[in-house]
Design brief:
By secondary structure, this protein is mainly alpha-helical. It contains eight helices and three strands, in the order H-H-H-H-H-E-H-H-E-E-H. The longest helix is centred in the last third of the chain and has 23 residues. It is rod-shaped.
Length: about 180
């Protein structure tokens, strides 16, 4: 009877059990420090596992299998990242690379102005606005929407006044044609 008790108590944990333990350790590390600065490889977890199970080559292999099965991404210093998948981390790195020479523009002080127009006109209107120097100075940015062209400006009155002149001319011409 003591032999069976010893053999079952010396049994290595399953790979799934090792995975869960590694996740808990890394999650705790992330919660305490905001990132992982201690765990780069399977051997870094062995102190914890050897405190619960006798050290053996089988235990080491089981922890290595668990690390491989988890397929955790690593940061630029080689530390495991627990709160992202490999795909998420790669996408984040790609975005970081693409944005390195970019800048952020806060549109908080801008006023949105919508030019409500038909679908077939939108791209050409955007091209003409982009081509006009006086409008380039008034428009911070613009985008096509399902209703028309949305412009963000720091001087809404001037922009609306500029467009109102054209709209009035078109209205006058349209009414003149009806007579």
């Amino acid at each position: 009877m003591p032999t069976t008790y010893l053999s079952s108590s010396h049994k290595n944990p399953s790979r799934k059990s090792c995975e869960q333990t590694i996740k808990r350790i890394l999650t705790r590390e992330f919660e305490e420090y905001g990132e992982n600065h201690h765990f780069k490889q399977a051997s870094d977890f062995m102190i914890y596992f050897e405190s619960l199970h006798p050290a053996s080559p089988g235990l080491t292999k089981q922890v290595q299998r668990a690390i491989n099965a988890l397929n955790l991404p690593r940061d630029e210093n080689g530390y495991f990242i627990i709160n992202k998948t490999v795909e998420e981390y790669k996408a984040e790195q790609e975005l970081s690379h693409l944005l390195q020479s970019s800048s952020l523009l806060n549109l908080e002080n801008c006023t949105p102005v919508l030019i409500k127009t038909e679908l077939w006109k939108r791209q050409h209107i955007m091209y003409l606005i982009h081509s006009a120097p006086e409008l380039q100075q008034l428009c911070v940015t613009m985008t096509e929407t399902d209703q028309g062209v949305l412009l963000y400006t720091r001087n809404a009155d001037k922009l609306i006044s500029f467009f109102s002149e054209f709209i009035k001319i078109n209205i006058v011409e349209d009414t003149a044609l009806e007579l």
